[in-house]
């Protein structure tokens, strides 16, 4: 009877332990469901909530208001004929009824003080042979915000080629024309000899304070590049697609090794405890160990992966290498020597029609083992729901699940960012620039 009573007590203890585990497991799953819904690699992902443009909507409203004011009262522009910190190049193509250009430019300029604005040269290229085809052609806000509004070279051969590519809706034509557009942007930026050239797509919004954050990130990228024994890096990425930072299939051996390591460590620890402390043997029975190591731990490991990589292992804030999964070309900053020595000659001489600029650039960088840095958190967000080459929502222009998006961007606090920006402006020490003058 005594032996039977002990067996029943142990069985009740095992059942109670497992039921307690299930309760804790359910609570953990509920918690993760409420916190991991922004992670597209999570089973708890809720796109209808994750894709809500909260901070972006705030910035869009600020940017639109800035653009409306700029149409009536021209804002300050760059006063440096040479040597600005940034030359920002934006190429824009008509989206046939949709335009995000005012939002993009307004978010870049809104909130800058006069000294910041003076150290930026803004080039906006309406990439059409006949620029009147673009919705924003000759808009007062565009004329008043941009420092330079270039056009394609006037030679007949280039004009004819551009017209042919515009009439061709194929991906190959888009890929080839895009490189021609970048040549125009990079050439115009090279004329003012900036420290860095920044290329932005025309359907993004920037955070308040992007200027000082980008400068700080570039300084860190430069230092880390030198720490690696390299002289230069290819670019600093201001945006990456959050959908590509999940549990990548090609890395499954790593996940298996770590999972097995956790199980093995658990087995070794529990076995050591049973051996070292005799009193624990009556609790850590073989049945308990089987449930613990064979059921509970695998369930916890499964929940860890189900919660999503960005939720469980988010990228730390700072500057890190991103040579893989770095989609797309919404916002990149290049040291000017890279532009002059490599990018401009490469795009000018390329006849490649099989890869758009982002893919083409990454393939080239892979072949040369170029360093590519990314800043976390990202400084811009992709808000365009209708692509200039037919992707996305063609009817409403709203974001769809197949469009690049950073889910953490929408968690930005506009008050905190504005305070950070004001504090930086108040404490900033500007290096003298040729031709730059301080406000009286």
Automatic annotation (TrEMBL):
List the InterPro entries hit by this protein, alphabetically: PGAP4
> In the UniProt record, does the keyword Electron transport occur?
no
Q: Sorted alphabetically, which keywords does the UniProt record give?
A: Membrane, Transmembrane, Transmembrane helix
Query: What GO cellular component is one of the record's annotations?
Result: Golgi membrane
The portions of this protein that span the membrane are 252-275, 287-307
Q: Name one GO biological process term.
A: GPI anchor biosynthetic process
For this protein, the record's PANTHER family field holds:
POST-GPI ATTACHMENT TO PROTEINS FACTOR 4, TRANSMEMBRANE PROTEIN 246
A single GO molecular-function term is: glycosyltransferase activity
Q: Which organism is it from?
A: Anthostomella pinea
The name this protein carries in UniProt is Uu.00g107450.m01.CDS01
């Amino acid at each position: 009877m005594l032996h039977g009573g002990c067996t029943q007590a142990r069985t009740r203890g095992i059942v109670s332990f497992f039921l307690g585990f299930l309760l804790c497991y359910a609570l953990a799953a509920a918690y993760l469901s409420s916190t991991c819904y922004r992670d597209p690699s999570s089973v708890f992902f809720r796109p209808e909530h994750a894709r809500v443009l909260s901070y972006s909507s705030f910035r869009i409203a600020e940017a639109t208001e800035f653009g409306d004011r700029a149409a009536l009262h021209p804002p300050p522009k760059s006063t440096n004929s040479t040597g600005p910190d940034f030359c920002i190049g934006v190429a824009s193509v008509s989206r046939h009824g949709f335009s995000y250009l005012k939002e993009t430019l307004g978010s870049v300029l809104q909130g800058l003080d006069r000294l910041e604005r003076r150290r930026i040269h803004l080039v906006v290229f309406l990439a059409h042979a006949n620029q009147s085809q673009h919705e924003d052609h000759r808009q007062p806000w565009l004329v008043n915000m941009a420092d330079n509004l270039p056009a394609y070279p006037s030679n007949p051969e280039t004009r004819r080629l551009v017209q042919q590519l515009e009439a061709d809706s194929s991906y190959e034509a888009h890929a080839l024309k895009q490189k021609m557009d970048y040549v125009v942007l990079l050439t115009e930026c090279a004329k003012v000899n900036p420290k860095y050239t920044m290329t932005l797509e025309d359907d993004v919004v920037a955070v308040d304070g992007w200027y000082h954050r980008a400068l700080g990130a570039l300084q860190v990228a430069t230092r880390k590049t030198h720490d690696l024994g390299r002289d230069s890096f290819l670019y600093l990425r201001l945006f990456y697609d959050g959908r590509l930072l999940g549990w990548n299939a090609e890395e499954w051996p790593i996940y298996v090794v770590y999972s097995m390591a956790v199980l093995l460590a658990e087995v070794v620890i529990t076995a050591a405890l049973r051996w070292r402390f005799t009193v624990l043997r009556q609790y850590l029975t073989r049945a308990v160990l089987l449930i613990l190591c064979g059921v509970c731990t695998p369930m916890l490991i499964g929940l860890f992966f189900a919660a999503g990589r960005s939720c469980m292992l988010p990228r730390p804030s700072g500057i890190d290498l991103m040579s893989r999964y770095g989609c797309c070309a919404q916002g990149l900053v290049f040291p000017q020597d890279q532009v002059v020595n490599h990018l401009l000659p490469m795009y000018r001489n390329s006849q490649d029609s099989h890869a758009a600029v982002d893919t083409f650039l990454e393939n080239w960088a892979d072949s040369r083992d170029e360093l590519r840095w990314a800043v976390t958190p990202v400084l811009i967000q992709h808000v365009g729901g209708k692509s200039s080459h037919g992707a996305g929502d063609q009817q409403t222009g709203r974001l769809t699940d197949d469009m690049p998006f950073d889910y953490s961007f929408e968690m930005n606090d506009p008050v905190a960012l504005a305070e950070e920006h004001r504090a930086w402006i108040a404490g900033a020490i500007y290096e003298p620039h040729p031709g730059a003058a301080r406000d009286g």
